[in-house]
Amino acid sequence: MWVVKYRKIFYAFSGLLTLASLVSFFVWGLKPGIDFTGGTLIEVSYAGGERPDQTAVTTALAAIDPTVSVRPSTTNTGEQEYIVRMKVVDQTEKATVMSALSLDSTATTTIKTFDSVGPVLGAEALRKSIVSIILVILGIVLYITFAFRKISEPVASWKYGLVAVIALIHDVVIPAGVFSILGHFAGYEVDTLFVTALLVILGFSVHDTIVVFDRVRENLNHASGNKPFSEIVGESVSQTFTRSINTSLTTLIALVVLYFVGGPTTEHFSLALIIGIAVGTYSSIFIGSTLLVTIAGYNAQKGK
Questions:
Q1: pLDDT digits (tens, 9 = 90+) for 50-67
Q2: Containing H/E element for 84?
Q3: Domains in the chain, start-ordered, CATH in brackets?
Q4: CA distance 271 to 34
Q5: Phi/psi of residue 148, each to 5°?
Q6: Which of 4, 16, 21 minimizes the C-alpha distance to 275?
Q7: Are 280 and 204 in contact (CB under 8 A)?
Q8: Pair 151, 220: CB distance under 8 Å
Q9: Structure pTM?
């Protein structure tokens, strides 16, 4: 199949995306939300549907927290509001913040969200998020190694797990890189919902990868002894190609709808999923399966 034939082009494309994502990540990093750093998140709307000047609100709140962030937002019904992120606000400061949001009672406000997270809880959430991702990847490697334990030629079972991990890292690094760029230029923050999105991406991606690998295993068992491994992988990709594309498209359609109608609460979550699932589907078809062919060719050259 052409996917196997032109695999070096797909390697180069993925390599460029991954490199760009890593450069962005190391230069700008991810902008952590209050879930990780601690702070207060406020979602406020104004009577009459018209919000006051953003600069005026920011100036009023800056007297309480100079690092305050005020971002305009619009609900699905067209209602204009602000999403405010600032330091942890205790009960004694809450009244002052409410007064600042209303510009000393010159505007009528409706507080939709007022959540505070302490720095200790934020650090714990970050630690648990990192541990969760590591445990998921480790579990996936162990499962694939066990599931393909009866395969030894031309690629050992543990190498199927290794290939899956390479694809999974690819699928996580690129969304993280995109959010690093968006964080630098558009102020996008990452929170526990973003970590949840990464975990969903890992599960979705490995599901697609295992479907292709499982078809490779079946075709290996039924292939004649002189049939090239590259041809077997090509046939396996062809047999699962339509299924993988259709599954991903139906999921992406739902996520695109959620992105546009779900409101600011789920906007970044759905965007991360859209990027990750699209990249995951690409890697399952064009990276994971073709890496098996590359490894088999390397083994043959080494006489293994």
A1: 788 889 999 999 989 888
A2: strand 80-86
A3: 2-33+120-302 (1.20.1640.10), 39-116 (3.30.70.3400)
A4: 19
A5: -110, 25
A6: 21
A7: yes
A8: yes
A9: 0.82
